C-alpha cells in the first residue's frame, strides 16, 4: 500500500505559474515526443486520487482523458460524475485515512495522489510514501506552490535521479518514518 | 566570469527552518565525515559574495572560519570589518552589477554567491550563471525560502546529479539565456 506523488514543479517549487497556467511545463523541447515515463508510471499504479479542482483542470484540457486507471475525485460538493466520465471517475469524500483504507480494501493499493491541495492534505496527515518530482529548471518567481504549511517536518530519502532531454531532472524520494 | 550559488535547501525549498535555525541540515547521518564536495568547490572559486546577515550567521558558528578565499560582504551600513576578520572579509556596496564588474576586474572571476537575500537580489538582476543545490529531503513545512519573487522567469538547464550518503541529492543547473 503506497501513496505516490508524481508531479512536475518549477525550480522554485511551483506547480502552476502566477496566472495558474501550465504553459511553462511544455516549453521544454521534446523532439522525440517522450512521455518522460508517464505511461510506465501509469502501469504501476492501481488508481488516482485527486481534488475537484485538478479534475476540472484536466477535464478542460484540449486532449483525450489521460488516465487509463480509475480516478477517485475527492469532493464534498459534487454529487454526480459529469457526463462522459461515468466509467472513469468516481466520487469519494470524508477523512483521507478512511478514503485510502477503503480504496485499499477494494484492491487499489498503489495510489497516484495528484493536485496541489490534495498533496498538501495528504502530507499534513503523513499519508505520502513516495514522491517522484520532475524539476523543470525554470525559476518562475511566483505561482501555486506544491508544498504548504506543516506542523512538523517529514523526512524522505533520495533514491534516484534521471535526466530528461538534457534539461529537466526527475528525482525520486521515499518516506523515512523511522529516521534516515 | 561565473556567479555560482552553492546551497542546501529542504525538499520544500527552505534554507532555514521556521525558527531561522539550521539544525535540520546536520541531521543527515555522515559517518565518514564527508564535506560533500565543499572543499573541492572552494578550490574552484576565487571569492565569495554574501550579505551582512549571512556573514553574521557564519561568524557566530562555533567552528573555525570555513572560507579559504576572500569574502566580500555586501553592506551599506558596516564601515569597518569586525576584529579578527581583517584579512578574510572585505566590505563592498552599491549596485550589484558594478560590484561584480569590479571584482572581475581584480581577477575574481568565479564568485560564490551566498545567503538567501543576496541570492534573490542576484537572481532579480539575472546575475546567476550556475546553481548547485543540495536537497536535504526533509519537508520542513515553513521557513526562510531560497527563492523569492521575480518579474520574469529565468530558465536554467540541469547538468548533473550526485547522490550523497544515500539520502540527499546535489543537482547542478546552468543558466540558459537564449532558451534551452
Q: What are the defining features of this structure?
A:
180 residues; 4 helices; Dihydrofolate Reductase, subunit A; 33% strand; DHFR-like_dom_sf (chains A, B); alpha/beta; two-stranded antiparallel sheet; homodimer
Give the helix/strand layout.
2 copies of one chain form a homodimer.
Chain A: E1 2-10, E2 14-16, H1 38-44, E3 47-51, H2 52-59, E4 71-74, E5 89-92, H3 96-105, E6 110-114, H4 116-124, E7 130-136, E8 138-139, E9 144-145, E10 154-164, E11 168-175
Parallel strand pairs in A: 1-6, 1-7, 3-4, 3-6, 4-5
Antiparallel strand pairs in A: 2-9, 7-11, 10-11
Quick overview:
Chains A, B: This is Dihydrofolate reductase-like. Chain A is an alpha/beta fold.
Structural account:
Chain A is an alpha/beta fold. Chain A has one domain: Dihydrofolate Reductase, subunit A, CATH 3.40.430.10. Chain A contains four helices and eleven strands; from the N terminus they run ββαβαββαβαβββββ. The first copy, chain A, has helices spanning 38-44, 52-59, 96-105, 116-124, and strands spanning 2-10, 14-16, 47-51, 71-74, 89-92, 110-114, 130-136, 138-139, 144-145, 154-164, 168-175. In chain A, the strands form two sheets. Chain A has an eight-stranded mixed β-sheet with strand order 5-4-3-6-1-7-11-10. A two-stranded antiparallel sheet of chain A has the order 2-9. In chain A, helix 2 (52-59) links the parallel strand 3 and strand 4 (71-74). The radius of gyration of chain A is 16 Å and the shape is globular. Chain A starts with a strand and ends in a 5-residue tail after the last strand. The interface between A and B is large, with 41 and 41 residues. Strand 10 (154-164) of chain A pairs antiparallel with strand 8 (138-139) of chain B.
Amino acid at each position: 500500500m503506497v501513496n505516490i506523488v508524481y508531479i512536475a514543479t518549477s525550480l522554485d517549487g511551483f506547480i502552476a505559474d502566477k496566472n495558474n497556467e501550465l504553459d511553462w511545463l511544455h516549453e521544454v523541447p521534446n523532439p522525440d515526443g517522450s512521455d518522460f515515463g508517464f505511461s510506465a508510471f501509469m502501469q504501476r499504479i492501481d488508481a488516482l486520487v485527486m481534488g475537484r479542482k485538478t479534475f476540472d483542470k484536466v477535464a478542460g484540457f484540449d486532449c483525450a482523458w489521460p488516465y487509463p486507471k480509475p480516478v477517485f475525485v475527492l469532493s464534498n460538493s459534487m454529487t454526480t460524475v459529469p457526463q462522459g466520465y461515468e466509467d472513469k471517475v468516481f466520487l469519494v469524500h470524508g477523512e483521507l485515512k478512511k478514503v485510502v483504507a477503503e480504496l485499499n480494501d477494494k484492491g487499489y493499493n498503489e495510489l497516484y495522489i495528484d493536485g496541489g491541495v490534495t498533496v498538501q492534505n495528504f502530507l499534513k496527515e503523513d499519508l505520502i510514501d513516495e514522491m517522484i518530482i520532475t524539476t523543470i529548471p525554470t525559476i518562475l518567481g511566483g505561482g501555486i506552490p506544491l508544498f504548504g504549511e506543516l506542523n512538523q517536518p517529514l523526512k524522505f530519502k533520495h533514491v534516484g535521479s534521471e535526466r530528461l532531454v538534457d534539461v529537466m531532472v526527475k528525482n525520486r524520494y521515499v518516506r523515512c518514518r523511522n529516521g534516515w
